[in-house]
Automatic annotation (TrEMBL):
Keywords (A to Z) from UniProt: Cell outer membrane, Ion transport, Membrane, Porin, Signal, Transmembrane, Transmembrane beta strand, Transport
Topological type in the membrane: Multi-pass membrane protein
SUPFAM superfamilies the UniProt entry points to: Porins (SSF56935)
Stored Gene3D superfamilies: Porin
Record-linked Pfam families: Porin_4 (PF13609)
Residues spanning the signal sequence: 1-20
Localisation per UniProt entry: Cell outer membrane
Record-given protein name: Outer membrane porin protein
Main localization of the protein described in the UniProt heading: membrane
Record's keyword annotation contains Cytoplasm: no
Subunit annotation: Homotrimer.
Kinase found in the keyword field: no
Length: 376
């Protein structure tokens, strides 16, 4: 009886909280598709291909968001966002709200101050990637390093001042023995303190943006190019005609605390076009290139090499909320590189079985997927 009584009180409290908000929205998306990948390293001298089902265009997500008008141009906002795998139903990222759990105050003249778990300042990169930082995109060569979502965050976003915007973010490490280090329970993310800044000039038909960020390991070091490192990004996009958009991006990664003999520098560049064949049919093409500086390949560090990926894709809108998608990509690697069409953890992984998706060193790979996405 006590449990039932407590549950009833909790439900009343939640309902009262929702009632107090000016606006509360349940939202999300669910995707599903089929993927084919070739030339996957399966053993010392063997390779194979695979078929998989999932949401390759983008993670399936669900969330709640709300705003309350505080008067005087002020708002209170909250955001809760979780990820799940539509093919298995499993929760993504090891957290209920891995993608976002924050509260914020926003003023029309002074900007927004946000506190909590969420995307970091470098998530703006998706605006300059024709394939939106999904699978087979600008994330392919970086292990999603250019789309981090981290805990303990403090973020400020300015309003638009005649086209100019800026922002800054600090994610606290919360360690008792060094502010750059991570807490003892950060095994899942392996991340300590991080920070970043961005500045942009935004117009209705074009945008240019620069950003800098630094993500430390939970040991407080910059020791892996695509996990704990510094990132400098420059990007531009332009709506050339009502139907044609062009995007270009460059990212420079450095990890000065990396052990001797391992790569400490990498450069990533891409460009692409999106063309609206009809109001419903959108064609996308892009080329991505990653060059990793001098150093050995190990199980957890990418070494010297170059990967180039060519991607073609399309989307067809069945309605305002539902669309079909299809993408095909081809990766060509230099002699020592083993980049996959899919984002993978740094390094070769197991020297015999590989790391699950990558070809053997110097090998190429073809990948393709198609499916459906519904937004609610």
């Amino acid at each position: 009886m006590k449990r039932k009584y407590f549950a009833a009180l909790l439900a009343m409290g939640l309902a009262g909280g929702a009632y107090a908000q000016s606006s509360v929205t349940l939202w999300g998306r669910v995707g599903g598709g089929v993927e084919y990948m070739s030339n996957i390293k399966t053993g010392a001298n063997t390779s194979g291909s695979k078929l998989a089902e999932g949401s390759q265009w983008g993670t399936s997500i669900w969330g709640m968001k709300g705003t309350e008008d505080l008067g005087g141009g002020n708002q209170a906002q909250f955001w809760l966002e979780g990820a799940f795998a539509s093919d298995t139903g499993n929760q993504g990222g090891g957290k209920l709200f891995q993608r976002g759990a924050w509260v914020a105050l926003k003023n029309a003249d002074y900007g927004m101050l946000r506190l909590g778990q969420g995307n970091t300042i470098n998530n703006y990169i998706w605006r300059f990637d024709p394939f939106l930082l999904e699978d087979y995109s600008a994330s392919t060569f970086t292990n999603y390093r250019n789309g981090n979502k981290l805990a303990n965050g403090i973020r400020y976003e300015s309003p638009n001042f005649g086209g100019f915007e800026f922002g800054a973010q600090l994610n606290l490490g919360e360690s008792p023995d060094g502010f750059r280090r991570g807490p003892e329970d950060s095994v899942l993310s392996n991340i300590g303190m991080s920070y970043g800044v961005t500045v942009a000039y935004v117009q209705p038909t074009w945008e240019v943006r620069a950003l800098y960020d630094e993500v430390n390991s939970n040991n407080g070091r910059l020791d892996n190019l695509f996990i704990a490192s510094r990132e400098l990004f420059l990007g531009a996009k332009a709506q050339i005609t009502p139907r044609l958009m062009a995007q270009v991006g460059w990212a420079h990664y450095t990890a000065p605390d990396t052990a001797p003999g391992l790569s400490r520098v990498a450069n990533h560049v891409w460009t692409g076009l999106t063309y609206d064949v009809t109001p419903r049919l959108h064609a996308i093409g892009a080329v991505y290139m990653m060059k990793v500086g001098k150093g050995q390949w190990t199980s957890d560090h990418d070494g010297e090499g170059r990967g180039t990926m060519f991607s073609l894709g399309g989307m067809y809108d069945l309605s305002k909320r539902t669309f079909l998608y299809a993408t095909v990509s081809y990766v060509k690697n230099s002699a020592n590189a083993n980049f996959s069409v899919r984002p993978t953890a740094p390094g070769y992984g197991d020297p015999v079985t590989g790391n699950g998706n990558s070809p053997a060193a110097g090998g190429s790979q073809l990948g393709a997927y198609a499916g459906i996405m519904h937004n609610f």
